[in-house]
Design goal:
heterodimer; A: alpha+beta; Ubiquitin-like (UB roll); 2 helices; B: two-stranded antiparallel ribbon; globular
């Protein structure tokens, strides 16, 4: 029985000036092959100008069950949003 | 549909009152249209059903390359050959998106492939029919990909995030497949009488197997209700089959081909066509492994997997050796 190739997460920059975005994953023996496979699997229609691959096992992720406590601090700070402040129209565009 | 008769391990749909608090919260998220993501809690039956459904869907994409691959070297022109190559490559890509989605549910790629190769998991019945001539390639793109699209478009809204995202990618690419098939049929139907006869013959052979792709009639489909409650199935088999017939009949008429069904007739009252059911005993035979090409298709998959083992192992050994050298340096 042969061994499964490791899993890689694939990130593609769609156009110059945009961030790389996660598009999916694939199996490959090493980083170089992962990039070649990503080209064939995820950019058959000019979807990208740049590819990043990262071993899935190297990604640290927040846990879904921590979602509440992790993001709660942001909920109460509505003054971070510009619409919190009422600026009179006479002050002009701000 | 690329997945047929997926078991759900449930004895009917529970009402919210019968559910545990955890199950109930889960069902309410689905009812609100929220997506379920890989590491979140989910009922074990939901997870298992999805593995079966996405796995079967992935296997169908991969095995689906075989009937068309048969004609890559025999395509009538270089352009048709290049197009068919691109289409078959897309099918491989679709299989890979779906395997990755299934793997987020805690099953490995090798386990899925083992189950395909040992016959424990199925692929769509449609790929057990032979491609006898070039017109069959047209019929497959037009009818088989057309039927697949019917099913996959609503599945873009399915409740499981990775499956939904795979479906969105697939749907973007699939319409090329159907159009290239119809383009072949159009060309042949407008060609010489012999070419037109080939196109008609392909339609005759692929019509009922295409109708079978949607699975048995709703009244015989025991798992639909649970799958629909979980939003891993959006429409019933009969709804999709009806939509497919209504869409396809005018397309056949437009190119002067005849749907092989004496009972086909427009029904003004329901706003759709009445049509004959496929022979379901044939469907169950094909699903049981006794279709015209079951052994050949599975044999080709197993051979490709076994013949490629030394190569997969070689690449991995090379990668480990390089890694070892880098660590030592």
């Amino acid at each position: 029985m042969s061994h499964e190739w490791p899993l890689w997460e694939v990130f593609i920059r769609g156009q110059h000036g945009l961030n790389h975005r996660h598009v999916g994953s694939l199996h490959a023996p090493d980083a170089e092959m992962a990039i070649r496979h990503a080209r064939d699997v995820y950019t058959r229609r000019n979807e990208g100008v740049s590819i990043w691959v990262v071993r899935s096992s190297d990604i640290a992720a927040s846990s879904p069950s921590d979602k509440g406590p992790l993001f709660e601090p942001a909920n109460s700070k509505i003054y971070r949003h510009p619409t919190f402040f009422k600026i009179p129209d006479e002050a002009g565009h701000m | 549909m690329y997945a047929q008769m997926v078991r759900t391990d449930s004895d009917g749909v529970k009402s919210l009152d019968e559910m545990s608090p955890q199950e109930r919260a889960f069902q309410e998220r689905i009812d609100r249209g929220e997506k379920i993501e890989p590491k979140e809690w989910m009922p074990e039956a939901y997870r298992k059903t999805l593995v079966r459904q996405i796995g079967q869907h992935a296997h169908s994409e991969i095995v689906g390359q075989l009937p068309e691959g048969n004609w890559i070297t025999r395509a009538p022109t270089l352009e048709r050959k290049a197009i068919l190559l691109a289409k078959v490559q897309d099918e491989a890509g679709h299989g890979l998106y779906l395997y990755c989605a299934a793997e987020t549910l805690g099953v490995s790629r090798d386990e899925l492939l083992d189950k395909l190769h040992s016959g424990k998991m199925k692929y769509s019945s449609i790929f057990n029919y032979p491609t006898l001539n070039w017109a069959d390639i047209g019929a497959i793109g037009w009818l088989v990909d057309g039927a697949a699209i019917m099913n996959q478009v609503p599945l873009q809204r399915t409740s499981y995030g990775p499956y939904s995202r795979a479906m969105i990618r697939i749907c973007k690419e699939e319409s090329f497949h159907q159009r290239q098939g119809y383009d072949i049929m159009m060309k042949m139907a407008r060609g010489t009488p012999a070419q037109k006869a080939m196109a008609q013959d392909a339609l005759n052979r692929f019509w009922y197997p295409s109708l079978m792709m949607f699975g048995p009639s709703d009244k015989d489909s025991v798992h639909s209700a649970q799958s629909m409650a979980w939003k891993i199935k959006i429409n019933t088999n009969d709804e999709l089959r009806q939509k497919f017939v209504d869409q396809t009949v005018p397309q056949a008429e437009f190119i002067g081909l005849t749907i092989p069904d004496d009972k086909l007739a427009w029904n003004e009252e329901k706003g759709g066509y009445d049509f004959s059911e496929p022979d379901w005993s044939e469907f169950y035979e094909v699903i049981a492994g006794n279709g015209p090409c079951n052994r050949e298709r599975l044999g080709a998959r197993v051979k490709a997997w076994e013949d490629g083992a030394w190569f997969r192992d070689g690449l991995l050994a090379h990668a480990r050796k390089k890694e070892g050298r880098r660590a030592a340096a």
